[in-house]
Batch of 2 targets.
Target 1
Amino acid sequence: MITSFDKVLEKCPLCSSPKIKPFANWTFKKIPLQYQQCHSCGFIFQNPTYSAASWGKFYKTDYRALYNDDSKPAAEVIKIQNDRADHYSQWLSNLNGKVKSHLDIGSSAGIFLKKIKDSFGVVKSTGVEPGDDYRQFASENGFDIFEDIDQLIESKPEKYDLITLCHVLEHIPDMVDFLKKIRAHLLSENGFLFIEVPNIRGGQSFEIAHPNCFSHKTLNDVLEMAGFKMVRHAEHGMPRTNHKESKIYLSSLSTPSEKQAEKASLASSEYLDSSLNHIRKGFTLDSWTMFWLKYPIKKLLGKFPV
Ligand SMILES: [Zn+2]
């Protein structure tokens, strides 16, 4: 029995506008999901969704079963994490030698922590990982791993020069407050925040555990609201594909900013039109099936996005 959605949002979580409209219906492992879009700032989000209490219950009882993850660091999971760690550390190579401490939130088996430690000259590596088995695995390999960021903050750690959040923010329902907490308690004054999320403009990112969808605009809005400034970003397919037209992921590097936006900025009509008329068309179940039928041919011809 999967936890039922128990929260309906009447206004946009990022700009409080009541102009929210259906964007896409999606079925994830036979569970119907609905996503809505704010017609003021363009944010696309799960609605109905879970209350804070139900998210807790969902992660305790449903998440593992649904995501078919026995939580053991199996060889293929480790391989994917290795490939990702290689890609992230390449993307961040200009920070090599400039950061002395690294906090990876969602640190899983600790592979990215190890990569940065070994190649960047980092002397302190800490992880945050809610999964018991992964936490234990990484702890056994010599890393300090906390169950959540509140536990870490309570331990009053020295602030970190580099904080990384890879495929985490799409899972966090109150992401602006979450990032504000990181900025206030965990990131050093001249520190760097690296975030990677799925890019809604490069592929669908509708999953039961994803209350948030990101475009470059939305990620920029969220960062500005939390007191950060995005200094670099890329839309890409790595490590899955290095095809230059593939934009399934969105990577960003940010630094703390003096300014903090009160709410998400207004989206232009071009932005809204492109998300409604171009993106949504690709997300009906029929066209998603067609996507996979046509995929081998388009791949052969080098035609992306497919
Ligand atoms: Zn909005």
Target 2
Amino acid sequence: MTLVSFDIDGTMFFGDPPGTITLDLVHKAKQLGYIVGSASDRPRRNQQELWDEHRVEVDFVSHKHHLDQIRERFPAKRYVHIGDTDVDKYFAEMHGFDFYFVHELPEAGSEGWIF
Ligand SMILES: [Mg+2]
């Protein structure tokens, strides 16, 4: 089981500023049975509203400095966080997540990537 956490601003296409992560990618992760959610600086309620607006059912909404709580809540083999800043990287690595910069995502099929 893989868990994928997305930052929102600068990462998701509906963030401010918009990032490059599309709903396609999120749906693909869900179809593969991954645990999917967001860890952003935005209030959790606002994150939930954004997902609802785009009709995506997520497993969690959290904050990047609380990724450890997500780890505790969802036992998984692999934890991945995708974001656009060094702060994302800092908290992801602190909490044992593999981190990918949104502007440096591996191509589909690359070794070690989630697809
Ligand atoms: Mg961001």
